[in-house]
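MODEL INPUT / OUTPUT PAIR
PAIR INDEX: 1
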Amino acid sequence: MTGAARGGRAAGPQHERVVAVLSGRTGSGYLLAPRLVLTAAHAVADVRSLRAAAVRGTGVRDCRLIWQSPQSDVALLLADRDLVRTDVAARLEPVRWARPPDDSPIDDCQVMGFPHAERRPDELLDVQHIECALRPGSGIVRDRYILDIKDVAPEPVKGESPWQGMSGAALFARGHVLGVVVAASRNWGHRRLEAAKSRMLLDDPQFVEALSQYISTAPTMIELPAVTRHRTQLALGGALHSTPEQLAETVRAEWSMARGRFFETMGTAERPSEGWANLLAWIREFDDPAIDDVESRLELVDRWLTSPDLSPDLKLLRLLSWLDPQGPAVWCGTTLTIESLAEACLAGRVEEEGPAARLYRDLCAGGLLDALAEFAELRTLRGTQRDWDTAWSTWCELVAEFGTRLPIEVREWASGPSRGMLLAAVLPDAVTQRVIHAVAERVTPPATGAVWWYDEMTARNSDPDSPVGKLLRTDIAGFATADLVREREQWLTNGVTRAAAERYDREWAAYEVGRRSLAARLGAALRAAVWIAEWAAALIGLTWLVWGLPEPAIARETSWQFALFALAAFAGRLPGVVRLGAAYRPPLLTWAGGGRGPDARAVLARTVGVLVAPVVVGVLVHDLGSVLTTVYVALAMICVFRFTRRGGMHDWDEEHQERLREYETGKNSPLTPLVQGVRSRSPRDRAEAYRALLDPHDPDRARRLPPGDGRNRDL
């Protein structure tokens, strides 16, 4: 038994298990598992729909009845989805069942449910937590427990019992379930409740069978002592402590004092120190198997507190997790969360000092993650230490295969800070995973074939979503890009290669001279004239086909207008054509656009425009006359000129642009200035640079990044 079940304490806050059962009328319930609800049978009898909702849970969920007993008036409901959040479900320990050993009263019983007397004016439900005393000698004939309610005497509600709705609430004491409330006793001034006995449930094989399908351990029954034992008080920090929770509170506040008192000087087995001897004697008093988890106490002492391999801080953390697993996890006086662990493994690994750096070193020392996983709030860490160690072993084996063939910067990083990225990759935290994904997107790995060792590493790690795969896509990808930059620098310093580069530049310069020569520019102008003349010829030819026979005068007037439009288009396009020179290559003799031209829709649009334009312009000439036609032609020419001057016509220089991109790509290899800077900067600057990579919204990010061009600063 682990976690909250230790030391006889409840398995988590009881209010997290309280459930409202909604079936047309309101009842109460108790969560045995994330989907399994214990309630009263009469509260769910003869109803068409069943729903339930846990306190601060995941909302109202549909349920179905999977077991009921008319004799005990108890039922089991199964929800279609978990009634509590994932973090709450993770810390739900198996329910512990108990019964009184004799007829002695048990005064510290509790019940939590939704009585009608607690309804608010807006008809919303709320929980009522009542204390009561169990009188085992009462209700023997009915085989029920009788509960005397303490300090509460509610008034009837509309003539009905104020406890209506309390049916189905669990009766528990000292972390054990003793029964289920099923009725309110009459003639006792609304100060008594009746409960079905847990013994009746566990004696029913059908109940045990139904329960065993949804819990991991078989239910067992113990006898709950009627009187709480009084234990010796342990002194620490000026206070006396008789319960584990009290000592845990002082340990959290006085970590250094507790470590020094109990574990820094423990003495020997024959002659223990006084502080350690007092603590050990105090712990050994929790030896009642009915209310204490004796096995976990033995494991605490024999395996952890007396181990020579554990540091004093780790021993104190193990003690704290046994004392109060439901409380916050504190390490060296600092409360730890998943978020602080993520900060340590991502940023602390590249810092020299500070809380994150110290926590990262403690994590690497080993044992801390397993100890933290004993706390309810960090229970999702269970197995993380094992996964981290496995990933680290896999990574070390991969690096060892390459040995000195890897760049020295990669070997140094691989043996140190890279371990933190592996921890981040195995942390069960969605925020940390999103940060890793964002880093992977901002670090562009080199192209395949550019860095041989990076290609081989990624090939040997076939799963990019594994911890090693995430490390390769983030840290190591950055170093691979930096290695590519360094290789290019070496390439440029080599005489033969430099000559080849200079020849490459000379070839490009010669190409540019040829493209901009006078002959090339005259040729471009001629091609533009022919290209535009094709359009003009098509328009004039169609004009004569349409207007030549019926209206020759209109045909002549319209033909001159199209000729002037073509002239305006040529004048507007000429500067751009001359600037492109030999790169200007329109699809001559293919007026619709050619194979490199527009798509089918553009070709169709041009065809329709050419067919319609002669008709439209001819009609305007016929209707407007010579004067208005002249004005129209002048305005149209201005529009055509401005349209073509501003680039409204295609440049037809795709081949030149592609060649230009190839040239620029050949001259400029991709850079990752962050990793490049990390190689040569101080550890503090390296930490600041890595923080900038992790947080793209940091206003000081530009200052923290190493020098580089503006484009690479946005990586």
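PAIR INDEX: 2
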Amino acid sequence: MKKIIILLVLVGQFINAQKKQVDTTQTELDNVFITANRTKTLRQETPVAISKINYKTIDEAKASALFEIANKTPGVVMINLGNEQHAMSIRQPISYSSYYLYLEDGLPIRPLGIFNHNALLEINQFNLQSIEVVKGPVSSLYGTEAVGGTVNLISQKPSYYPEFKFGVQADQWGYKRIQAAAGATIGKVGFHIAGISSLQENSWMAQSDYKKDNLNIRVDYHINDNTRMISNTMVGSYYSDMSGSVNENDFNNRTYTSTSDFTYRKSDALRTRLTLEHDWNTNSSTYLTVYHRDNKLGQNPSYGIRWNPTVNPTTATGEVNSNNFKSYGAVAQHTQKFDFWKTTMVSGASYDFSPVTYWSYLLDIKATLNPGETGKQTVNKYEIVAEHPEIKLADYTADIYNTAVFEQISFSPIAKTIVTVGGRYDAMKIKYDNALDKSNGTKTYDKFTFKAGINYNPFKQAGFYGNYSQGFAPPGITSIFRAKSGTGGNTGTPAQFYYNLDPATFENYEVGGWLSLLKNKLSFDYALYYMEGTNELLSITLEDKSTDYRSAGETRHKGIEFGFNYKPNTQWNLRVGGTVAEHRYIDFQVSDKSTDPLQNLSGYEMPQAPRWSGNSEVTYYPNWLPNFRAGIEWQLISSYYQDQVNTVKYAGYNLFNARIGYKYKSIEIYGNIMNLTDKLYAYNASRGNLASSQSTFTAAAPRTFLVGLQYNFSLKK
């Protein structure tokens, strides 16, 4: 490493005649956001907690997975579940719940009721221009699932001059990726194409191979100075083994074996859209977008393995499932500005029709146990004994309709103050055919959500805001059509389903602000929030030991999010971001069984909810070696409870990553060291509520050396 640094220094002195690199990064107050108001808006006009990861940050991260980028946002903890699979925490504990809305250029990646916490594995990291994250509910603009956070992944636009990039990256654990992108504008037509192909083989974790291919194509046609036609298409395929979690002994001994060699996840995705934009004048613009989605998701999931050590520890069950949907939809929006009170009105309507098919069938599985103490058995290996396609766990088709209208108005009744109010009405309908109980019918969810906020900017360098916002998340349709335990099958009674589930609803109150000092060298932003959820999904044990689901849970979430940036000169940049939060059950019934000692979790902390989390980084751009960069990143996750009854904690972790890169003319070479100190840690740790329950760990990667080479060509003068 020392020889490489000396060589780079000599090269830097040789090309010392080059101009010194100038950082043109905008300050927080100058940032323009799209997601929070569905139109371009300055930070000081936006009464919500919103963060932006710009292209420079994305490019320098050279991430092999999206979580490496997303975690740079204060208030965001995106955990890696392996091979780009993931879970999220934004104003919620780390969970797989449908409380996050994922957008691609402002459009939801998935339709109502088909949330998947792994949806972002379909994203092409080499096609990203920026990422905007709104923290807290924005259902008043985007509808369902925009509760804890809304993540908008914004794609690159066509370049004016011809550009081309090609790169490769790899690590010592069998991961490799090829990536390429090109763009240009010829006359009135501009295009941008970006593709990646990732492959993982024979990694540190057994049963963890994967392959991913993505291609994004954008074409812009400038009909005239005021009218544009934009086409966006994404096609991707993904296949991954699912290694699953490991027990505590294997985790501590770094024995990264998998209990199953048959679990997998595969996905084929197509998203295409066509947008017509027109500027009527400087104060008026309209766009119309029509889109289509086509997704096929198949699994033999490791989380679907059900094993009970107290009943018959040598047997288990599993499942194979398939969830396929198509979508046909349109969004129309008009933005109008008025001189009176500097008013801006954003009005729109959307329609989405998504037919979906889903089936799941039973597997009989043999469990081979590890030698251990009685009552504390763990599984060494699962093996499929028999597949039962004739025993369906779920089998339905559904047509999902979602029609919505929304309106948001911003105005300035007095100097330095901006008021924003908005609302949205969603009319949702599911027409279904359930093959298991041979029923069909319609389930409707109608919901109006509201938001009101105010900005006060007393100085050019400082601003404050406050808001009240509502969010909601209907139950996933898979949870509706899973047969109730103890019904149907061999019981002699018809299967029963959860047709009575209602949407979870949330109310959020927050205040915040931002500050820029020392001629924009130092910036600071913060948010304090309080949010309550009602009608959340409960899993309740009944008197006969069967399980029931109900929409009746209540939770409370409160915290402080903060971000600090300091750039004393062109050579150094310091970023500090973090969250202090508390997530508790208010009223959360878990059992109706009279003999259970704990029936309601009221007052308990929610599991997988660290009180402290943060991501900070210092980056160095030496003047004596232009186009060189080096940085150290610190990720903090404090301790949290593994179980709902707050008996066992996971200690959390402090993690360090290092990144280095150098550009010489059109060639860029870089290296990332992830988990710099080779720390033993888990992305997630969980445990059941029983005294005999065992902890399971989603093991994180050992120290990883990623190296890459990239060629960048541009005719820009």
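PAIR 2 NOTE: DSSP finds six helices and 37 strands in the chain.
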